[in-house]
Amino acid sequence: EEVVLGIGDDCALLALPLGEQLAISTDTLVADVHFPAVCDPFLLGQRALAVSASDLAAMGARPVAFTLALTLPHVDADWLQRFAHG
User: Alpha carbon of 6 to those of 18, 34, 44, 57, 72: distances in Å?
Assistant: First the structure.
């Protein structure tokens, strides 16, 4: 009953107290499918955020926070720093 809208749309909607709703979206970007495996981490960071922000905008939601899940074989701290700044 807390899930107002589940799988099949841009975001899931969860019911919150006081009649509000929380829109949640998670996207996976796969190397060599959605972006070249060798790419600028800054630009990849921008793209990852833009994809999620687009889903929220499609639902008419106002972003208040973003989460990110990364599955990486190995990257160095500099790569992660540049990605985060994107």
Answer: 20, 24, 28, 17, 28
Domain that holds residue 80: 3-85
Q: What is the pLDDT of residue 73?
A: 74
pTM surpassing 0.85?
no
Q: What are φ and ψ of residue 74, in 5° steps? A: -170, 130
d(CA 19, CA 27): 27
Tally of domains within the chain: 1
Which carries the bigger pLDDT value, residue 26 or residue 15? Answer: 15
CATH number of the domain within which 39 lies: 3.30.1330.10
Helix (H, G, I), strand (E, B) or coil at 83: helix
